[in-house]
Amino acid sequence: MFQRRMILTLALTAPAMAIAPRLSWASHSLPPEFRRQLEHDANAPIFGNPDGDATLIEFFDYNCQFCRAMMPVVDAVLGADPGLRMVMREWPVFGEGSVFAARAALASRKQGRYADFHRALMSQKPRAERASVLRVARSMGLDTQQLQRDMGGPEIAQHIQQSNALAEAMGLVGTPTFIAGSDSRFGAISSTELAELVAASRGN
């Protein structure tokens, strides 16, 4: 794991869901155009205070054990910071099961259950695969037929494509990756370090 500022290979924003050709960026700071793209994607779920004065972005995968371990840490930081706005970036990198889980989670927004479904998927012990994801959905009372229809929506494909493009442009090495302001952390970290990352972002 690394705990350092990102040296980024960056992209400038083109249309809302597109990434323009990458530019070499030698500094440690995140250009405003790229930061806006990370922080204000209307197609990304938001946790915490939608009007908060600090934004934390998480790139995650439901089959990432460190992502699962970080869920209570994230919830603790969100609960302790009423001014925190958190952007959730579904980034399925662990195979087809992860892709199915990410698509199902994003589709659950249509039923108003994304936050609950996200936490349920992160809390399950089995690997996230089609069968286990649908089992969790049924246990929560989600309409699984509607869920599977909604998984084919273009906005869901766009979210995942955007996550892949952003991650590639920044040279992210894996999940979970947390970004706040112009700084980042990768892997399982303490609530103190995550809160410090957020606090530092308020000054830049």
Structural features:
Glutaredoxin, alpha+beta, two-stranded antiparallel sheet, 204 residues, 45% helix, disordered N terminus
Compact description:
Keywords: Disulfide bond, Oxidoreductase, Redox-active center, Signal. The protein has 204 residues and is an alpha+beta fold.
Please tell me about this protein's structure.
It is a single chain. This protein has one domain (32-201): Glutaredoxin. The protein has helices spanning 32-39, 65-80, 96-107, 114-123, 130-139, 144-150, 154-170, 191-201; strands at residues 9-13, 19-24, 46-48, 54-60, 84-90, 177-180, 183-186. The protein is built from eight helices and seven strands, in the order ββαββαβαααααββα. The strands form two sheets. A five-stranded mixed sheet has the order 3-5-4-6-7, with helices on both faces. Strands 1-2 form a two-stranded antiparallel ribbon. It is globular. A hairpin with a 5-residue loop joins strand 1 (9-13) and strand 2. It is 45% helix and 18% strand.
Derived from helix and strand composition plus strand pairing, the structural class reads alpha+beta
User: What is the terminal-to-terminal distance?
Assistant: 24 Å
Number of domains: 1
CATH topology: Glutaredoxin
Beta-strand fraction estimate:
15-25%
Helix content bin: 40-55%
Could you spell the SSE succession in H and E letters?
EEHEEHEHHHHHEEH
Indicate the topology.
Elements: E1 9-13, E2 19-24, H1 32-39, E3 46-48, E4 54-60, H2 65-80, E5 84-90, H3 96-107, H4 114-123, H5 130-139, H6 144-150, H7 154-170, E6 177-180, E7 183-186, H8 191-201
Parallel strand pairs: 4-5
Antiparallel strand pairs: 1-2, 3-5, 4-6, 6-7
Helix pairs in contact: 2-8, 3-4
